[in-house]
Amino acid sequence: RASRPPPSSLRFLRFWAARRPPPSHVKREPKPATSPAASSLPTAGRPPKPKTPPRAFRNLPSSSTHGPAPVHGRGPRSRRPLPPPPPRPCRRRRLRRGESAGAAAAAARDALLPGVGARPPPGQGEPAQLRRHLPTVNSRLIIENLMKYGLLIRAGFWFSARSLGDWPLLMCCLTLPIFPLAALMTEKWAQRKLIRDHVSILLHIIITTTVLIYPVVVILKCESAVLSGFVLMFIASITWLKLVSFAHTNYDIRVLSQSIEKGATHGSSIDEENIKGPTINSVVYFMLAPTLCYQPSYPRTAFIRKGWVTRQLLKCVVFTGLMGFIIEQYINPIVQNSKHPLKGNFLDAIERVLKLSVPTLYVWLCMFYSFFHLWLNILAELLRFGDREFYKDWWNAKTVEEYWRMWNMPVHKWIVRHIYFPCIRNGLSKGCAILIAFLVSAVFHELCIAVPCHIFKLWAFSGIMLQIPLLFLTKYLQDKFKNTMVGNMIFWFFFSIVGQPMCVLLYYHDVMNRQAQTNG
User: Fold this and answer.
1) 454: annotated active-site residue
2) Ramachandran area for residue 71 (φ above 0: left; ψ -120 to 50: alpha; else beta)
3) DSSP string over 47-67
4) Cα(122)–Cα(128) distance, integer angstroms
5) Helix, strand, coil % (nearest 5) of the chain?
6) Res 56: pLDDT
């Protein structure tokens, strides 16, 4: 009985009600005397031994109309009912290897209440059926596309003769490490008090501004490929964000050190590792680490898992190839057979946008998985970087605000630390701080897309700024309907059905029109 799960409350009462002693008017049979020798005999033919109910149920009123049932050994009920016994302590099951506390609690709940909250066996249920059917359906669509159109991937997709002409962009990328070294020298001079604080701030502004203007000038002067320009602008934007964090954090460290020297702050509660000055090793590690927020030291792992890194690299190659296959096999033919969405027929534009929604969503998911889940974790493992929260479950976002807070955690932490909190400390409202954060994000989206395409029509800027009314709309709908699915559906509608396909069509036709005018 110890191995059998205890019954529920209702079955528990029925269980003991069936085993209660007979009423007082029922004649009891005398209890046969037993001996140690007789206790070892088999029980065949022996009358069943009456079981005494627990103390908590002895004084319950009898179902008979002839009065209460007597308490064994105490005569008729004349004393106050005894209090219920204290609950028996529940023995906690030890966790198995690799099992979480939540999984153990759920298993214990399912064992206590069979049929309530029970999970389907492995390989069954709706998610398992979706995992089985989705690859089958997609494989059939891929085979039909290959049979109808053939393999459309060009030999020059990964490397072409035009890529050799992008050597100015490569040289620009190789010279970007000069700016972190210049920022380090500025901090060294400020730490030794060779220059004043306002001079160091001015030098940091010049360094961070140059690190953005320099790649923009190189890309606009050279007729390079769009992909090469995007990679250069992406690296330059990351460098700018890191240098801003480096300058901001070191300024706060200098202010804190000066307050400790003056006695305004007790230094006993501050770790010396977190207020030491920058070194060449710390700057190099920060520029390579998968984070945008500078600090003198980071949590580190004990060793590098080489086998795990190899598997993740193979996955990264596979998903990058899958992303290229979807672009060449599906997106390019659809876009080439379309018209400008703002100049052609409205119904044709809707049909192209809906047809592009599925492949662009797959490309986005492959890019997200390859970069945020694979590449950043590979980089963190090689550098033994301990803080690996690169994203959260943004696909379950109930509002647009939650999506922007969860899908890119390094950028979110940078914005909160270097834009949002400084705006709040300077007396700005929360709404104004959010507006400034979206404005900075929109500027960098426009730089990373418009500069490589040599087109400045503010499509990307407008798309990011339009997120602000969607932010308040999804928040209002969630508060009004008290349903998390409303905001999630609106988010996915604007994210995968309208936003990305429309952006692809707009920039593609603008790039094609620009190339036609240049060649003409």
Assistant:
1) no
2) beta
3) PPPPPPPPGGGTTSPPSSSS-
4) 8
5) 65, 0, 35
6) 45
Q: What is the rounded distance in angstroms from the CA atom of residue 412 to the CA atom of residue 420?
A: 10
Identify the segments of the chain with pLDDT beneath 70: 1-141, 145, 148-150, 152-165, 264-274, 340-342, 344, 483-484, 515-520
Residues 6 or more apart whose CB falls under 8 angstroms from that of 442 comprise 460, 461, 464, 465
CA atoms of 415 and 409, how far apart (whole Å)? 10
Per-residue model confidence (pLDDT) at position 44: 45
Residue 120: per-residue pLDDT: 41
Full-model pTM: 0.69
Identify the pLDDT of residue 211.
93
Q: Is 125 left (phi over 0), alpha (psi -120 to 50) or beta?
A: left
The pLDDT value given to residue 208:
93
- Rounded distance, CA 7 to CA 107, Å? 16
CB 271 within 8 A of CB 490: no
Phi, psi of 204 (to 5 degrees): -65, -35
Dist CA 459 CA 464 (whole Å):
9
Given 266, 445, 454, 509, the catalytic residue: 445
CA gap 55, 67 in Å, rounded: 19
Query: Are residues 230 and 448 in contact, defined by beta-carbon separation less than 8 angstroms?
Result: yes
- The β-bridge partners of 75 are 71
Question: For residue 83, what pLDDT is reported?
Answer: 63
